[in-house]
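Sample 1 of the test manifest.
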Amino acid sequence: MNFNFDLIVNSFPLLLLGAVITVKITAMSVALGIVIGLFAGIARICRVKPLRWISAVYVDFFRGTPLLVQIFLFYFAVPVITGQRIDPYVAAVGSCGINSGAYIAEIVRAGIQSIDEGQMEAGRSLGMTWTQTMRYVIVPQAMKRVIPPLGNEFIALLKDSSLVSVIGFEELTRRGQLIIAKTYASLEIWFSVAIIYLVMTLTISRFVAFLEKRYNPDDRH
Amino acid sequence: MIDIENLHKSYGDAHILKGIDLHIKEKEVVVIIGPSGSGKSTLLRCINFLEVPTEGTVAVDGILLNGETNINDVRKEVGMVFQRFNLFPHMTVLQNIMLAPMKVRHIAKEEAEETAKKLLARVGLADKADSYPPQLSGGQQQRVAIARALAMKPKVMLFDEPTSALDPEMVGEVLDVMKRLAEEGMTMVIVTHEMGFAREVGDRVLFVDGGQILEQGTPDEVFNHPKEKRTQDFLSKVL
């Protein structure tokens, strides 16, 4: 077996460029996913039935179908309907973000439901509306509790973003494939790609641990 | 101040309240006693619509509570203190007290803070303004909860077993605050198991059992000369 270190060193800058794009897609998708997930998660438990229903369908669909299929739908099927080509970047962030939003909605819902019912009652008994109590009392407490599962979701999303390589988007995985197509160095390149992913996910998990500690300083460990 | 007529509450097949009629005057202190599961707390919670009655009417200060009234208009006039305090743990004591006056009554921050500090001094906790609720003892938390309810300047205060979750040595400090409130002329409805307190502070005592008001009268009438057999049985167990 030949392990070509020079090749790794030489292709590293290209791979890192891919990693930057991976981080970008992930960050944008996370932002989109949090916004969608927050609203969908709250909608899931609000009193307005149609909103609950829409949220449930959304979560079921995007959690119940493969992300890869969703990416294809977004990139290839939507243009058939609209007649407009979609930018791969929009398709990548859109499909990852909307997919992630479904998982985040469930995380948010569970976080909110884990807050003692007495908190809502206390807020309402003071004359605050449901929305005010959610905003000032329930959601801030729920957000602290959902930090660990959100961390898991971000790590999963970062890894799943490799799927957008199928629409030719040149993130880390795609760069790896392209380099291998030229060099045939599968072992070296896939090994490097894996290590770069690992460094990124470990960074996220350390960051999440830091946030957890910072926002829940009094909790038992 | 509070007018309740023919109030019924059911959860599915469970009939919790079976026709309650109750009229409470301004400045009156009404104490509700009775065994667990008798419907005392449900009755109290119907007064600010935390429980929606199945049948019958509730009016507070002349405003009839139903689907059409803005429930929040009534709730801001009715303070409530819970058995388990229900303070907001992510906010300081001061922020707990300031939140509703600022968001519901749209009072300026400086004014809300001033009022909150006065109320904290009144319940003997001026030095705890910047603490977080989990750092306080049960008795201190409950006094903050009372201050939080008072910050809305309510016309009525409801107390749902305010001392039941407290260690025995902390019961006194909470009851003292409530006693002073009663002396200052607050209209109060109190569900409690503290019979000594009921006797001392109550203008009227209601004995509730099986979802009905079985007996009511002055503390002397109910505690010393109960007419109903079930009231006698209950009192013989708790006194």
